[in-house]
Amino acid sequence: MVNTSLPIVPQDSTDPREVFATTLVRASKLPPRLDAVMTEMETVANDEGIPIVGRLEGTIVQMLATLRGERATRVLELGTAIGYSALWLAHALPEGGKVTSIELDPERAARAADFIDRAGFADRVEIIVGDVFELLPGLGVYDLIFQDVMKHRYFGGDPALATELLRLTKSHLEVDGILMIDNAFCGGGVVAGDIDEPANELAGVRRMNDVLANDPDFAGVIVPVRDGLWVARRKS
Predict the structure, then answer these.
(1) Which residues is 78 bridged to in the sheet?
(2) Per residue in 105-142, pLDDT tens?
(3) 57 to each of 3, 10, 65, 210, 224, how far by Cα in Å?
């Protein structure tokens, strides 16, 4: 399995406002089969330190995908982990919609496929195993892209890869499409003040935030939930 020795942001915040919001989200039940698998995945992720977006952010991702209605049928996810966010996205799609999800770790991809199958969404999610930089150029364009790669694995060697991935992702996003990027705060490091020698992944995410915020082709905002969620619409 790929090494993921990075401090994991908890799937549920301890901020009382987010705790309250999560309580309300949990009161609105998902379909029983999906809810049972999601709850199991949350327990597995918590026990094994696997990063997932959690119930509150998952609901936000799903709602944002739903807002595009019938137009959002082509969804790309960069970073499957165990398939938790892929299920939120798949649940949001209209009939005929499809999530293509890329995962670097074969073991996690296999676990994700099992969870997704048991949740009843195997016909809506395709998992591709491999490196995002190698696979993405061969793919088409999408209505919505959710980027949640392991930042330390992809950017740890070279912070410039963060902005390169942003550029590559943009080239596969339809005009008027939605881009979401998780961990915009990079474990809180982005808002922690000046750091003499920031880790490469932190330096990369900081630069990516600046580039995306100043790109005239996008209109977007970081939603300050959990570890920060970029939500941006491609205008042109």
Answers:
(1) 102, 147
(2) 999 999 999 999 999 999 999 999 999 999 999 999 99
(3) 24, 12, 12, 23, 10
- How far are the Cα atoms of 23, 36, 64, 136, 187 from residue 9, in angstroms, in the given order? 19, 23, 22, 26, 6
The rounded distance, in Å, linking the Cα atoms of 12 and 68 is: 26
Chain segment 41-63, per-residue pLDDT in tens: 999 999 998 989 999 999 999 99
Instruction: Supply the Cα-derived Rg of the chain in whole angstroms.
Output: 17
Q: What is the DSSP letter of 192?
A: S
* Residues in the chain, overall count: 236
Instruction: Find the helix or strand (DSSP H, E) in which 127 lies.
Output: strand 125-129
**Dihedral of the CA atoms 98, 25, 35, 66 (nearest 10)?**
-20
Exposed, middle or buried by CB within 10 Å (0-12, 13-18, 19+), for 149? Answer: buried
Residues 205-217: b if buried by 16+ CB within 10 A, e if exposed? bbbbbeebeebee
Alpha helices per DSSP H over the chain: 16-27, 32-48, 54-66, 84-92, 106-119, 132-135, 151-155, 160-170, 200-213
Model pTM above 0.85: yes
Q: Distance from CA of residue 89 to its chain's centroid?
A: 10
| Whether 77 contacts 84, CB under 8 Å | no
Chain mean position to CA 111: 17
CA pair distance 110, 198, nearest whole angstrom: 34
Q: Which residue in the block uniquely carries the two structure tokens 């993921």?
A: 4
> By the 8 A CB rule, do 57 and 84 touch?
no
